Amino acid sequence: MGLSTHVLDTMHGCPAAGMAVRLQRWAGDAWVDMHHITLNADGRNPGGMLIATADLQRGRYRLSFEVATYFRARGVALPDPPFLDVVPLEFGIAQTEQHYHVPLLVSPWAYSTYRGS
Q: Which residue range(s) make up the domain with 89?
C-alpha cells in the first residue's frame, strides 16, 4: 500500500485542507526532497499515496507540515514567532511490503502522531 498521510485540524475539528507538506528521504548525508504537496479537502494527498508500495524503500523519511502558515491562512492570530511553525516528523521504514500511514492531529499549540493503518 505504500506511504500515506492525513492531517486533522483539532482546533477547528476538520481536515487541514490547504496545508503544505514536504516529503524527504535521508540520503546518507542530507535530506533529499521527494514531494511537495498541498492537502486536499479531506486533509490528504490529492494524488493518493505519497509513495506506492512498489517504490517504497527502506530508510529514514521526514514529513514537514507547514502548520503556522496553514493556521494564519485560516485567520488564526498567532504570536511571532508562532509556538509551532513547521512540524517535522522523522520516521523509519523497515518493511517495504507494509503500509505506512503517518497521520497528524494538530492545533497551533499541540500535535500528535502515530503509525496508522
A: 3-113
Please give the tally of structural domains in the chain: 1
| CATH number where 8 lies | 2.60.40.180
Three-state DSSP class for residue 50: coil
Find where cell 546518507 sits: 28
Burial 67-88 (b: 16+ CB within 10 A, else e): bbbbbeebeeebeeebebeebe
- Per-residue pLDDT of the chain in tens (117 residues, 90 and over written 9): 899 999 999 999 999 999 999 999 999 999 999 999 999 999 999 999 999 999 999 999 999 999 999 999 999 999 999 999 999 999 999 999 999 999 999 999 999 999 998
